[in-house]
Each structure stands twice: as C-alpha cells, then as structure tokens.
Amino acid sequence: MICCKNSGFETRVRSGGHDYEGLSYISYKPYCLVDLSNLKSIDIDVQGKTAWVEAGATLGELYYNIANKSKTLAFPAGTCPSVGVGGHISGGGQGPLMRKYGLAADNVLDATILNVNGTILDRTGMGEDLFWAIRGGGAASFGVVLSWKLQLVEVPPVVTFFNIARTQEKGATKLVRKWQKLVNEFPKELFLRININPKKNSLGQPSIEATFNSLYLGTRRQLRRLMRRKFPELKLKSRDCEEMSWIDTTIRIDHYRNGSTIQDLLERKDKRPTFYKVKSDYVTKPLSKKALEGLWNVFNSGFGLMIFTPHGGKVSEILEDATPFPHRKGYLYNIQYFAMWLKPNQTVEQIKLDWIKGIYDYMGEFVSKPRTAYLNSRDLDLGKTLNGNEKYSEAKSWGEMYFGSNFEKLARVKYSVDPGNYFRNEQSIPPLAP
C-alpha cells in the first residue's frame, strides 16, 4: 500500500468478496489491489465466546469453524456463505440472528487496521471514533481492516427452520400484509423473512410467489404454538418445520444452496447468476393491499428477486448513533431488489436495469421518508464521483441515505485519519474538516 501511495496509484481493498458494485476491485484510474482473500485465519475461543477472524475469510468459513468448536455458539451475520467477512461486517451485516443479537457490526469487540501511514492499529491504538466508523460505515474509506474480534452468541442445540411458499392466488398478498403488522410483535427468537419471486399461475399468466423463510431459536412445538397464536393465517403445519442445529440452518436458509452440505460452507464460488444489479429500501409503514398488488404487477414482468428482511428486536433497541448503521427504531423491514441475468448481453442488461429502476421508482411513494438505503446493497445510482474527491456537500444526497445523521460524523472521522483522502472510491466517505 505504501508503495502504491508513493507511486501515485490509488488503492482498492478486497477482503473475501462482497461489494455489489465491484468497488473493491474496479477503478477508473490506475490502482493497486490489496487482495486479502488469502488472509483468512480464524481463531475461536469457546471459553471466552469470542473469535478473531481475518478480513479475507468468508461467512461460511467463519460458521464452519465456530461449529467445529461448539454446537451452541454462533455469530449473527448474513445468509450467503460466500460473502466476505470484511465487507459484510463493515457495512452493518444483517442476518437471521439479528433480531435476537443485533447486526454483525453490533457484535465486534476489537479490530486491527492498517492506516494511511502504514501503521497497524488495534482498537486502543485507533481510538473509539475510528472503531465506531468501521463498524457499519464502510471500512475501505478509512484504511485496510486486517482482522475482527467478534463476540460469539449462544444458540440452543436445537433450532427450527421452515420454508413455506404461497402464490398470489393462494393468498400471498394477505399474508404479506399481515406479516408487516407482526414484525415488531414477534419475539426476538423468531426471524421470518419473505423472498418474492415471479411465477406463472395455472393459466400461464404473470404472478408472484412469496416464500416465508424462517429461523426460530427453539423447538418445533414452541414455534407452532407461537405461530398459531400470532400468525394462524400462514397455516404452519408440523411437517413444515424441521428441527436441526444452527449450523445446518446456514446451508438451508439460502435457497440457492439447496442440496448443500456443511462442507460446502467452505466453497467460495457463489451459485447465484453471474450478473445482477441490486437496490434497497427501508419500510416504516405497512404497505396497503393496493400498494402490494401494484408492486407485484411491476415486479412480475422480469427475472429477479425481492427479499423482505424484518427488523425489530435487538436491532431496533440499539440507538441509531451507536454505530454508523442508522436504520433502527421505527423501521419495519428492509427490501433488497435484485435484477439478474445469466450471460453478458448489453440488450438484456439494459432491459434488466430498466426493470429494476421501474420497481424502485414505483416504491418511492411507499418507503421511508426521507428515502434510505443499506450500504451492503451498494447502489451507485444514488450518487457517485469518478475521481473519488467529491465534496461533503455533494455527497450528502447519497451519504445520508445510507447513514442518516451519522454521515457527518463519518466525514469528520475520515478527515481525522485520512485528511488527504487517499482511501477513496466512487462512493467513499469524503473528509470534512472541523
């Protein structure tokens, strides 16, 4: 990195792989790539319930190593095992345990970072402001995170998983409406998200299918009792529920990995389609039947996916300025929109981009005001600069979508640790002088 800096090259930092816009390995200027993908050591301390994880490890590798040491310890992070730990944690890190234990970034105890001067610092050395910034503010704006010390969490030896699909013709709209109202009523132990896919109905007409995808930190019997009381409309049956260990759920909850084994958590190649564009939103008020039906009509004309991830629980109890991730109290759920295509084709790509833009434009009326976004669903459509030297005033439009009122503090921390703005990309945190 120091050689790159002295030679006038920019530096891009790639951990285990995460950025949807490819900012960790693409630049419009000559650059050096600091590739940490082989920096993947994981040290589990079962007694202390902690783990030191190097930034190049993947979530799957982390989960695998935890399970090898304990059947009742876990880490609250995402559902895609091939995602890199470094980027995922530094952007917040939503996942199935977040309603019980918070985000991945909420469970970081320490870190080591290489700063702009080439010095490696731990939490004490970097100071609390920088330690705050890298836990949800996008660490690549501030330096090169080399490792994280994580707080592991306790899970029961037996948890319960289910995956239930309901088509639009079978009442999916009514179920989604009810789910929205239950998000904050469910106990912290229940994570119940919804995947929306386009589907043809029995007449061959465009429709949608809503898959209710759940992890419950308890037994099948406890879950069925809870669902009968809170969500009887879903008609959850005993045969729908599978009891298993937490580690087994990590290979079941991501439907792209059907048929996988625990050993496959170590596989770094994703099975998803090769090309995609992602956008995101947060919802603070339940969508009406009319709004949902309008969304289905816009969505079902293309090949893609929407994921509704519930908030509430521990995530909502943490103050919005405790980390840079501000989407806390008052947020019902996050929506991620995915447009996907299999082969490079400019015509198909433009069709997909127009399609996802149409969905995003339609939803503007129904989502949070002001409109917000999730950093780990990076979206350059929100704003960017080609030279990485955008002024704070120019970056506020997209910066506050990701970080709310925390954006100003992030920019001031940036100035204190990298006033020359060496660590930059098309959507990095700009320095703001006092």
From TrEMBL:
Residues 1-155 form the FAD-binding PCMH-type domain. GO terms for molecular function: FAD binding; oxidoreductase activity. One of its GO terms (biological process) is alkaloid metabolic process. Pathway: Alkaloid biosynthesis; nicotine biosynthesis. SUPFAM superfamilies: FAD-binding/transporter-associated domain-like. The keyword Signal applies. Its cofactor is FAD. It is found in: Vacuole. One of its GO terms (cellular component) is vacuole. Keywords: Alkaloid metabolism, Disulfide bond, FAD, Flavoprotein, Glycoprotein, Signal, Vacuole. Its main location: other. Belongs to the oxygen-dependent FAD-linked oxidoreductase family. Involved in the biosynthesis of pyridine alkaloid natural products, leading mainly to the production of anabasine, anatabine, nicotine and nornicotine, effective deterrents against herbivores with antiparasitic and pesticide properties (neurotoxins); nornicotine serves as the precursor in the synthesis of the carcinogen compound N'-nitrosonornicotine (NNN). Catalyzes a late oxidation step subsequent to the pyridine ring condensation reaction in the biosynthesis of alkaloids. This is Flavin-dependent oxidoreductase fox2. The lineage of its organism: Eukaryota, Viridiplantae, Streptophyta, Embryophyta, Tracheophyta. The gene is FOX2_3.
